[in-house]
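Lab notebook, design round three. We kept the backbone fixed and only want residue identities now. Task for the bench partner: fill in a sequence for the structure below.
Input structure tokens:
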């Protein structure tokens, strides 16, 4: 069994286990890393489970795909008793692919909720689930992927390594879970287009502009 795979809505064991496990990773990221991800403390686990269950229901319609990495439980470093275990595995991280219903942009899709458990950081989880997401995007002809992330977050440095480029900053985008009132004004919107020449050109232009900035500063 592969560790990284796309959730199968026809597998009852997956649809039952995934929402709660995803909610726990979601909560972990908000509380331990102050990730800005929809919810603010105090967090309701039940509400976040319902959130993920609603996304799982949209898989059948083709609106969402959920990609997750489940790793075998390590007996030398077992999870806490409250961690959701599925087939002797625990959830290391996940990401969602949200396809737009737009008739003018059927090729667009959004990368949402790339979240990795604090137990599995810096082990390549984000890279692996994103690679699987891009495979899924290609399969459905979604070649323009868009997302946003907070400047200064760990994810800000992950996406460029995966070939994504910054296309803009939105100031005062959302409230920080650190104190529920500070406005995070440093949201980067990134985009990757693959399999088309125009996005390759755009990426090269971005590299040239950054080099020019460096030369001007030096």
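Proposed sequence:
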């Amino acid at each position: 069994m592969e560790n990284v795979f796309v959730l199968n809505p026809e597998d009852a064991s997956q649809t039952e286990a995934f929402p709660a496990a995803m909610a726990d990773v979601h909560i972990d990221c908000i509380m331990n890393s102050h990730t800005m991800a929809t919810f603010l403390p105090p967090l309701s686990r039940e509400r976040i489970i319902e959130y993920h269950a609603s996304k799982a229901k949209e898989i059948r319609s083709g609106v969402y795909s959920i990609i997750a990495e489940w790793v075998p439980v390590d007996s030398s470093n077992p999870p806490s008793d409250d961690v959701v275990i599925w087939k002797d595995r625990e959830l290391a991280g996940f990401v969602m692919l949200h396809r737009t219903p737009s008739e003018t942009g059927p090729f667009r899709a959004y990368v949402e909720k790339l979240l990795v458990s604090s137990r599995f950081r810096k082990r390549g989880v984000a890279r692996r689930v994103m690679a699987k997401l891009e495979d899924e995007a290609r399969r459905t002809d979604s070649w323009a992927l868009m997302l946003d992330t907070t400047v200064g977050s760990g994810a800000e440095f992950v996406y460029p390594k995966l070939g994504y480029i910054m296309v803009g900053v939105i100031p005062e985008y959302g409230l920080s879970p650190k104190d529920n009132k500070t406005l995070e004004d440093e949201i980067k919107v990134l985009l990757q287009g693959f399999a088309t020449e125009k996005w390759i050109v755009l990426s090269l232009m971005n590299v040239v502009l950054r080099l020019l900035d460096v030369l001007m500063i030096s």
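Keep this in mind before ordering anything: The helical segments are 12-33, 45-57, 125-139, 154-161, 197-217.
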